[in-house]
Amino acid sequence: MIIAPSLLAANPARFGQEAGRAERAGADWLHLDIMDGQFVPNISFGPAVVAAVRPHAKKLFFDVHLMCSKPEILLEPFAEAGADQITVHVELGEQVESLIWKIKKLGKKVGLAVNPPTAIAAVQPHLEQIDMLLVMTVNPGFGGQSFIHECLPKIQQAGAWRRALWNNGAGASGSGAGRYSTGRERKLPYRIEVDGGINDQTAAECAHAGADTFVAGTALFRRRNMAAAIKQMRKILQDNDPTLADLKV
Ligand code: DX5
Ligand code: ZN
Asked: pTM of the full predicted structure?
């Protein structure tokens, strides 16, 4: 289970120190929300901020979430700024295929995001090319919103497609055998990330539905003791990990 605090909820005057705080608190990834004021009705920060934050959290995996209408002009600047993964939205339509290849060509991991109103079927043609599927659990653009429970069946569907891909032999050999390990070292076809309104309660619901990567802004950065908050969320996730359920009998 991956826990990714979202820097959008941190004090913008101290983004570097806040990223360092997340690393020391035991976070796995740092989630970076990039908003252009067009794809979503808000503006956040650009490659220069990501580059400035990078030295403060050298060990964290930088998960860059592009909520932008013209991501093609931003891929290289964010790759150079220190992104480890770049996520684009399936709502961009026809250009998604070429964006996926451009991100791969930059040697970065690829994420594909789907908004609450968008049918999950929209991502199906791309599932074998991506490293992570991001099921948005709020309408993108702002932190601090309430979790949309109608998104839970989309997580279950994504989990079912992943199991089917796995059973058909998908998933390159290599380190980090996935949940459905059959003794042969195989990676998960793709991770399932949730983002928006994630706290201990909704994280538990998402884990039960099949998610394995959890973005949380308000629930983590607004806590004085972030280490305790992350430890608590990790415990709850382990207690709600459906693949461990049979180990508990
Ligand atoms: C919303 C962003 C989220 C947001 C999460 O568009 O993609 O990453 O920052 O913040 P919380 O956890 O406060 O909902
Ligand atoms: Zn996000």
From this structure: 0.93
